[in-house]
């Protein structure tokens, strides 16, 4: 194995941490997102705001940096899994301290934390597919130090017999790799603005994700509304098209009326933006 100078590791880790944080901020600001916090307002949330989401994103930069430093050019093994589990849980505490106890980004710490680690494990040289596969390897390893908590996500996955955040990562992020990333790039190729391309990518995730936030808040009715509504936006030509914008506004109203918010889909959009950026020429050269 070729050892990289420490300065390269530090620089790479700092870039990854800054980029992951920026992806969280880009996701939070993107508007109009159905049911979610965006630059218009708080969506279906009473305890969240854009300012809080941004504060939370910034509080996670040291966690992402530590994850990258600790994972640099290491193999996926139990020792690394335990290290990133510990760092991830510390990140959750940083987030809670920054938000006064509100859960803003738990799913994002999981998804982006694994992906940041996986990029670092490849020494910054992997493509999106390789990075997602490596993140899945990590996610499949047991973490003996993880406390046994019966979370809302676990409750929803058991009750409705569906995959959640854990399975999404263990399956190498199918909603990112097979839906959002191709849609982001297709919409850009078709001449959509960056904001419209990102909104289309979010819709692509929402067409089939079993988002445990939506299930916990609004059950199967909420999940069907999310998936059918997102499909309607894309079938109407996407968010750059007037018919797609009308469908997106209808979906927003429907989600708000059900108190539903696709927080898991939002996290996966941030993960999509991150994987898109690691493949950009700025990163590679
Ligand atoms: C594996 C963990 C992610 C834990 O997962 P689990 O399902 O057991 O636990 P949850 O605490 O429910 O967290 C899952 C969060 O993942 C997001 N999500 C939901 N569905 C999916 C999906 N299908 N695919 C991917 N991601 C998904 C979602 O996060 C967002 O929503 C959060 C707000 O939701 P909630 O708490 O339910 O809040 P509200 O409904 O708004 O609450 P009320 O206002 O109604 O009270 C928000 O944080 C978004 O990020 C789910 O919440 C993982 O966390 C874990 O095991 N971590 C341990 C540390 C570790 O090993 N880390 C390694 C990498 S760093
Ligand atoms: N923009 C957003 N609104 C609500 N919950 C979220 N979780 C992650 N991003 C979110």
From TrEMBL:
Pfam families: CitG. One of its GO terms (molecular function) is ATP binding. InterPro entries: CitG, TriPribosyl-deP-CoA_syn. Its EC number is 2.4.2.52. One of its GO terms (biological process) is prosthetic group biosynthetic process. Keywords: ATP-binding, Glycosyltransferase, Nucleotide-binding, Transferase. It comes from the Bacteria. The keyword ATP-binding applies. It catalyses: 3'-dephospho-CoA + ATP = 2'-(5''-triphospho-alpha-D-ribosyl)-3'-dephospho-CoA + adenine. Involved in the formation of 2-(5''-phosphoribosyl)-3'-dephosphocoenzyme-A, the prosthetic group of the acyl-carrier protein of the malonate decarboxylase. Belongs to the CitG/MdcB family. This is 2-(5''-triphosphoribosyl)-3'-dephosphocoenzyme-A synthase. It comes from Kluyvera ascorbata. The lineage of its organism: Bacteria, Pseudomonadati, Pseudomonadota, Gammaproteobacteria, Enterobacterales.
């Amino acid at each position: 194995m070729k050892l990289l100078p420490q300065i390269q590791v530090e620089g790479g880790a700092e870039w990854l941490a800054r980029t992951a944080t920026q992806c969280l901020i880009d996701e939070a600001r993107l508007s109009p997102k159905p049911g979610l916090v965006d630059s218009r307002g708080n969506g279906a949330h009473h305890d969240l705001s854009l300012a809080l989401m941004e504060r939370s994103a910034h509080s996670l930069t040291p966690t992402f940096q530590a994850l990258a430093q600790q994972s640099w050019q290491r193999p996926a093994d139990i020792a690394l899994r335990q290290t990133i589990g510990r760092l991830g849980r510390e990140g959750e505490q940083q987030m809670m301290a920054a938000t006064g106890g509100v859960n803003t980004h738990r799913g994002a710490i999981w998804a982006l934390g694994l992906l940041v680690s996986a990029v670092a494990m490849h020494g910054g040289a992997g493509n999106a597919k390789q990075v997602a596969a490596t993140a899945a390897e990590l996610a499949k390893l047991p973490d003996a130090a993880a406390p046994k908590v019966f979370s809302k996500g676990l409750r929803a996955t058991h009750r409705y017999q569906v995959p959640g955040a854990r399975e999404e990562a263990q399956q190498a992020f199918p909603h990112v790799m097979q839906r959002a990333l191709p849609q982001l790039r297709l919409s850009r190729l078709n001449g959509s603005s960056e904001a419209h391309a990102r909104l289309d990518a979010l819709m692509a995730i929402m067409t089939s994700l079993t988002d445990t936030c939506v299930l916990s808040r609004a059950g199967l009715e909420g999940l069907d509304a999310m998936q059918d509504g997102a499909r309607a936006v894309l079938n109407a030509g996407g968010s750059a098209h007037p018919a797609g914008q009308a469908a997106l506004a209808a979906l927003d109203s429907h989600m708000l009326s059900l108190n539903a918010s696709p927080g898991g889909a939002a996290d996966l959009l941030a993960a999509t933006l991150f994987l898109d950026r690691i493949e950009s020429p700025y990163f590679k050269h």
